[in-house]
Amino acid sequence: MSLLRVENLSKEFGGVHAVEGLNYEIQPGAVHSIIGPNGAGKTTLLNMLTGVYIPSDGRIIFEEHDLTGLAPFEYAAHGIARTFQNLQVFFNMSALENVMVGRYLHERCGLASALLRFPRLARAERACRDEAAELMRYVGLQDYLSTASTAMPYGALKRLEIARALATQPRLILLDEPAAGLNPTEALDLDVLIGRLTERGITVVLVEHNMRLVMGVSDHILVLDYGRKLAEGAAAAVRNDPRVIEAYLGSSVASDGAAASAGSAASAASAASAASGGGQADLRGTSH
Amino acid sequence: MSAQFMPQFMQYLLSGLTVGAIYALVALGFSIIFNASHVINFAQGEFVMIGGMATVSLSAAEVPLGLAIPLAVAAVVLVGLALEKFAVEPARGASVITLIIITIGASIFLRGLATLVWDKQLHVLKAFSGDAPIAVAGATLLPQSLWVFGITLAIVLALSWFFGRTLLGKAMLATSHNRLAAQLVGINVRHVLLLSYGMSAALGAIAGILIAPISFTTYDVGVMLGLKGFAAAILGGLGSGVGAVVGGIVLGVAESMSAGYVSSAYKDAIALVITLAVLFFMPSGLFGKRGGERV
Amino acid sequence: MRQNFASPRVGGMVALALVIALLPVGLSNNYFYDVAILVGLNAIVCVGLNLLIGYAGQISLGHAGFYGLGAYGSAILSSRYGWPPLLSMLSATLVVAALAFVVGRPILRLKGHYLAMATLGLGVIIFMVIATEDKLTGGPDGMSVVAFKIGSFALREAQLWYWVVGALLLAAVWLALNLIDSPAGRALRALHGSEVGAEVLGIDAARHKLMVFVISAVFASVAGSLNAHFSGFITPSKVTFLHSIELVTMVVFGGMASTFGAVVGAAALTVLPQFLTVLKDYEMMVFGALMMGTMIFMPRGVVPSLARLFAPRRRPEGERKPGSEGAA
Ligand SMILES: Nc1ncnc2c1ncn2[C@@H]1O[C@H](COP(=O)(O)OP(=O)(O)OP(=O)(O)O)[C@@H](O)[C@H]1O
Ligand SMILES: [Mg+2]
Known about the structure:
- Chain A is α/β, with parallel strands linked by helices.
- Helix content of chain A is about 40%, strand content about 20%.
- Chain A is built from twelve helices and ten strands.
- Chain C is mainly alpha-helical.
- Chain C has a single domain (about 30-310), classed as Orthogonal Bundle (ABC transporter involved in vitamin B12 uptake, BtuC).
- Residues about 1-5 and about 315-328 of chain C have low confidence and may be disordered.
- The interface between B and C is large, with 47 and 48 residues.
């Protein structure tokens, strides 16, 4: 049974169909990647899957609950967490406090208890602080435990968002371009981190342009183009799908020159030709 | 009673349109500065006050109106430029609330200055062309109202030409949309900011001069007029020229109608209630840009 | 409290308590007591307002309205209807809380300048009602208010008021510090940093904004009621738009997102005008210039700017005062 299922999901912005008629399922325990050219609708999809945008049409079903139309905080309460392509770090708080905010759902207290600081709350606060610190170490931020978030480098902030999302104890985590802006070694470390997330029993959805990362970790790939599903299936199958190559590289597929000068598309091409045999061979069909 | 209704309604409408036009001018001043810098200039009302006061004292000194008005406007423009240069520019990048307090500080400063240069008395300016009322559909209209309508209309047309047709005007709008991009294509952002303060100051001054013969002018008229102008700009949608004009007119007419039909003590309150009610349903005003931030 | 005494929370509380305890040594006559009491009452308003503006990042240019409703509510109930002052004050507080709760939800959906306008409008509407309903409020002339009484014990001497207000200020600061360091307080600061970032962590931003709006209104209302009974006479001048601005200026002057900053700001801007009166005609100009000057040169406010100046880089782990970095 799928963990999350969307049916005929659509989002329109004044005539622009950012996502259109999407049917898609996410299986528990697997790493799902969503790829596609700039403007394909990947972020829009994640925004709908976390209640940030309300779909123009269609349904979102998570663990057999219909979440369509709920507010973002309700999605979080159901166990869906995310990171952002454009950082949404709380820069008015320290790094550790950022992660402590993530414990909010599991450390609620009444207003009276907050104002009067009952001893029980003081204890819970210490535990919360410890757990947040533990999560920061888990994502490799042990050096920033007492740092102001404003003083952290970009790569560390991306990890901070992951730690913060993990603090909500999600069953599903959506990562929007976690490797963007990272140097190659930092990007490499992400493989390991994503692997460890699945070991924790967290299902991962990865939106990424870095094909090496995608091909390395994905069990399943969805390709979006102009808001529509272009292809989906196991990594190997998707990589060799001519329509995918076409979408990424335009019509001049064969030309090395075009590929080399095409920015993120170049990494798609090189990954497509270099890597072989990542992911399992269970092809769920390349629809549309 | 029903025979009385139409003329009375006309009367309220005409006086509402007159103050509405003044509010529109003040609101346009807010919008121009907001567009250039995303700052709300709470000293906008003082431009209005200084324009009125300066004209009153110049014409008391026997300076003919035709000369007194441009002189007063020029003086206010200088004040506006000084405000940008010495108070707003040094605080660039400060938070919204810090800038609000800076411009409110400036308005208190200017008001204090006005009590020194002038006094705390009520002043009245002679009407531009007499006080003989004109009959319109059973109601009466002061000639000064015609001046208000005519000049407001001329200004609105001139502004829409300026922002829609001229390179400089388009450059100012470009700055508001994307400061960096404007810089990259060679727009001098600092000049645009100065220009926006100069234009707003001129608009405020003209509003103050136009209304001086209709209502009294004193050192603190700017507080209420500034507030109304701000309310009108917000009601119409910040940064929208059409919004500023529509907001001003709606506010002016609403006020005049509530004074006539409901309670003159609560006319300002009713106008504000209408503004709030509109915001509850349209959080970016009537013509403001919709939609929040992207993530 | 097994809290570390060196932490800014407890350390600051102790320092504030010491200042309040020792200040009377320097207060040579009743006039100084009056000013000190006024400082305390304004500080209570600012501590609440700072929760809203400094921590949650929501502007209000209308809190003089809540202050005024507290003042007039208590004044009318006790002086016109003969209710016991304490009951009048509590009833007024309840009414203000209910009003803030009802209008807060739609108002707080607005952002930035729209929110500024809406709160400003709310404050002005309250002012107009108070200034117009002269049968109840005495209109622009104001009304006199009975002394504060608990049972048969009347609170009259300035010295007594001083201790009462001092204790209440300490309580207000303590409540605010507790709130800020709780999960709810972190939620507030988070939604200031990024509303969508907070929401996807499970925080109902609207509910939290409303909560802090109501709390800040209640602080203002209580201070307003006390001021009415203390001074024995109130006029609508304390309910004006300008008074709202004064309150916000105190918060920003002291330093947004710093509870002690709010207290310092309230003290500075309450005492300053008392000195400025010697400037007579120049008072307004100088006050305006000072407002501009401090904001231009210390946009973060006095306390954070000074803290930055004097505090060395070394900051012990986790003891950083939460959110003291101020707001964007
Ligand atoms: N809030 C919005 N308002 C209007 N249009 C939007 C909004 N959000 C997204 N869009 C549009 O929807 C389309 C899809 O955008 P989206 O951000 O989802 O793309 P993406 O696949 O995430 O691209 P990228 O790889 O560049 O991040 C684009 O055309 C974009 O301009
Ligand atoms: Mg995206």
